Amino acid sequence: MNQTKTAIITGASQGIGKNCALGLARMGYHCILMARNQEKLEEVAEIIKQNGGESSLFAIDLTQEEELVSCLQTIKKYYGNIQVLVNNAGMYTGGTLQITSHAFRQQLELNLTAGFILLQELVPVMKAQKSGSIFNIVSRSGKVGFAQSGAYSASKFGLLGLSESLYRELAEYGIAVTAICPAWVATEMASVAGSPHQNDEMIQPEDIFKTIAYLLSLAPNTRIKEIVIEARKSIR
What is the CATH number of the domain that holds 197? Predict the structure, then answer.
């Protein structure tokens, strides 16, 4: 059993997840990278290696429950302790009632159910070690139901509720749970979603990592339930 300081990052192939992985590796964590795209994960792993860090990668469809559970069991068996979970993987499909029920379920499965399964599998590890930090990457859409994004908002409202419940449930076990709710972040998803802002007008992906690094630097008994991050031009 490996006792290296370990962080699991989902959606680690690009955007927020990639920046969190690179940053946590710089902080000395062995980063376990999870996403669908093997090639992009290998690129992230190579950058980490070039910078003197360590990582492992798992190219996996997080919506496939049996595959995900099997993968997590392998990780738990080899690494033992898990210090950090960045629950970041997500997708965006615009629309509310005009989308198909299949498209609606797809967003729920990745944005909410996959995160639930990760928590279900990894929280017992953190309970046993009496420590751990969980960062659920939600969205401003988890606090405000924006027009034409009802399915996405529904999934993110769900993740925010799950995060707050665990924030309260896990405090006695020494586990910190924080929901991070950014507005527009300069990522590929923002382009797909039709952000009205230029990249330099949005939150930068590395700002999400900096937020996590700050939270990890706090005294062990300090807890922050939720952080909302906005760019100046997204405030209205």
Answer: 3.40.50.720
Q: Which two tokens stand for residue 176?
A: 């910190």
* Residues with catalytic roles: 152
Query: How far apart are the C-alpha atoms of 175 and 124, rounded to whole Å?
Result: 11
pLDDT digits (tens, 9 = 90+) for 82-96: 999 999 999 988 889
Please tell me the total count of domains within the chain: 1
On whether residue 136 sits in a domain, the answer given is: yes
DSSP character for 8?
Answer: E
Q: Structural domain of residue 209, as residue ranges?
A: 6-234
Overall pTM > 0.85:
yes
Rounded Cα distance, 221 and 68, in Å: 32
d(CA 226, CA 149): 22
Rg of the chain over Cα atoms, rounded to whole angstroms, equals: 17
For residue 33, list its beta bridge partners.
Answer: 9, 57
